[in-house]
Design a protein that fits this description.
The chain is of the alpha/beta class. It is about 35% helix and about 20% strand. The chain is built from nine helices and eleven strands. About 45% of the residues are buried.
């Protein structure tokens, strides 16, 4: 008889985790989903003054959602790190341009052309990349504003039981902060990790794991490819 399905442990906020699980199911993959967000999103504001701003910078789709929730103007061009965030900005009515990469790629894109300034980077309390400071030092005027918080949440008992079990657990990790929170947990199960970037890998170092693969590009599509491969290996017992 076939063994139990591998566990897919999803640690982003529930809406994003459920979307990712459905995308994998659409590929015909079989798994037992366990959703245990390691942080929540609190829109904090205040709404920053964007009256003189000539473009907005978003480094996550959550930033776009928080900006909308605060009533921010959406008649400005948006510059984003990746395609997913660009899609969120376009859905909000903005003209979006994606760097298709990392914060480094975004800074390089904006400094390589005569980007109209000033710009405004909208982000959460926990952020990386120093985008606004690096752009300003490069001669592209940019301010930043915190418009949401990401307070940590405890891992659920179901998720902890999976980590301490015998069934293989596949876990996609999309950010260094999530990696740091996950690395505080104990794991005995065969743990197969998909990391969004090398920064995520560094955050995960203390965590006991059977295998770890890094996405070729820091975007959801590339993460789906890695997670798909790990799930197939877990189903085949190849780990």
């Amino acid at each position: 008889m076939p063994g139990p399905l591998p566990v897919l442990l999803l640690t982003r906020p529930a809406p994003a985790s459920m979307r990712f699980a459905e995308e994998l199911r659409a590929l015909g993959l079989q798994f037992e989903p366990v959703i245990s967000p390691l942080f929540r999103i609190d829109v904090t504001g205040p709404l920053p003054d964007a009256s003189a701003v000539r473009g907005l910078i978003f480094t996550s789709a959550i930033g776009v959602e928080a900006w909308q929730a605060l009533g921010g103007r959406c008649d400005l061009p948006a510059y984003t790190v990746g395609k997913t965030t660009a899609g969120a900005a376009e859905a909000a009515g903005m003209r979006a341009q994606s760097a298709d990469g990392t914060a480094d790629d975004l800074v390089a894109m904006l400094t390589a052309h005569e980007t109209p300034a000033p710009l405004l980077h909208l982000h959460g309390r926990h952020t990386r990349g120093d985008v606004a400071q690096r752009l300003s030092l490069a001669g592209v005027g940019c301010n930043s504003a915190v418009i949401y918080d990401q307070p940590a949440l405890p891992m659920s008992e179901q998720a902890r039981a999976a980590l301490m079990g015998t069934v293989p657990v596949v876990v996609p990790v999309f950010s260094p902060r999530t990696g740091k929170l996950l690395a505080q947990e104990r794991a005995q199960a065969p743990l197969l990790v998909a990391a969004m970037s090398e920064a995520v890998v560094n955050a995960l170092r203390p965590l006991h794991k059977r295998d770890l693969k890094v996405a070729e590009r820091p975007e959801s599509e590339a993460m789906r490819e890695v997670v798909s491969d790990l799930l197939k290996r877990a189903l085949a017992g190849d780990y």
